[in-house]
Amino acid sequence: MTIAILGAGAMGQLFGARLAAAGNTVTMIDVDADTVAALNTSGITVTTPMSSFTVPVLAAQAQDLTDSVDLVLVFTKGSHTSDALDSIRHVVDERTVGLTLQNGVGNERAIINLLGEDRTLMGMTSFPADRKSLTEIGTVDSGAVILGDAALTESPSELAEQTATLLHSAGLQARSHPDVRVPIWEKLIFNAVMNTIGGATGLTVGDVGRLPETQQWAEEIIRESLTVAGALDIAISEQRIRATLTMAYREHADHLTSMTEDVLQGRDTEVETIGGAILSVAEAHGLPSPVLRMLCDVIRLRTLASKNRRSIG
């Protein structure tokens, strides 16, 4: 299968390497010329606590692509999704399928606009990925991918099943889900806790789980978010969310979330597709979410301040 990975960051490279190692023709697409050159020269190296492998891949900037692809797998930040998909319109055709495994919700709308609802899949992954260099990714052997139809059909379509099989055969532990909103929103609420508190405070994951102040915020975010999910009639498991948070506090204690890193570096964050997305639904249903709103506002202001300091410097 010919696959385009849109966004050659840590998660994009992890999936690109696994899919290429399984025999698929993979092209990594990124706006950064240095990343593209490094990938073409060195391939992608994936390291886990138990193993390491390197696989060659093709890499290009979008304007340099010529051949159409079977699958577009989107791993850009949510704020870049529409522009990134616009840049590859010339390599999609009537058979191309799009899949987003990005953080947050709403990313599938840009794929639907490009390919149509019947060729758009969405989902989530619990695999971690840390970028150790331009072409080296650290991860672990455990994780999963859960995906489904953007059309929210009563049962997974043949397309969803085939795509899950493709990813599973690449060692990505994938399966389809009849209501993919459930795993997406459970990860969304997890990220709303970890990323908004981390991004607002600069604290590590372990500190977020340890300090009484941040744990109080976490409890309020969970409560507010579950109320919002209930308004959408999504059968969220609070127990699964809490179990994932507990595991993260324990196993990734020294880690800074991606949103925290983005704030510190003055980069655009995913606040609008994570906390901001929950707030949008809350507003539409007249539901108060004061703690989540406050933390999202702090992230926006911290990001603005970081950008201003960098422009002055």
TrEMBL record:
Pfam families on file: ApbA, ApbA_C
Residues covered by the Ketopantoate reductase C-terminal domain: 180-301
Pathway noted in the entry: Cofactor biosynthesis; (R)-pantothenate biosynthesis; (R)-pantoate from 3-methyl-2-oxobutanoate: step 2/2
Keyword DNA-binding: no
Name of the top EC class for this enzyme: oxidoreductase
Keywords associated with the record: NADP, Oxidoreductase, Pantothenate biosynthesis
Example of a GO MF term: 2-dehydropantoate 2-reductase activity
Highest rank taxon of the organism: Bacteria
Record's catalysed reaction(s): (R)-pantoate + NADP(+) = 2-dehydropantoate + NADPH + H(+)
EC id: 1.1.1.169
InterPro entries given in the database record: 6-PGluconate_DH-like_C_sf, 6PGD_dom2, ApbA, Ketopantoate_reductase, KPA_reductase, KPR_N, NAD(P)-bd_dom_sf
The Ketopantoate reductase N-terminal domain, residue ranges: 3-150
Known function: Catalyzes the NADPH-dependent reduction of ketopantoate into pantoic acid.
Protein family membership: Belongs to the ketopantoate reductase family.
PANTHER family according to UniProt: 2-DEHYDROPANTOATE 2-REDUCTASE, 2-DEHYDROPANTOATE 2-REDUCTASE-RELATED
Name of this chain's protein: 2-dehydropantoate 2-reductase
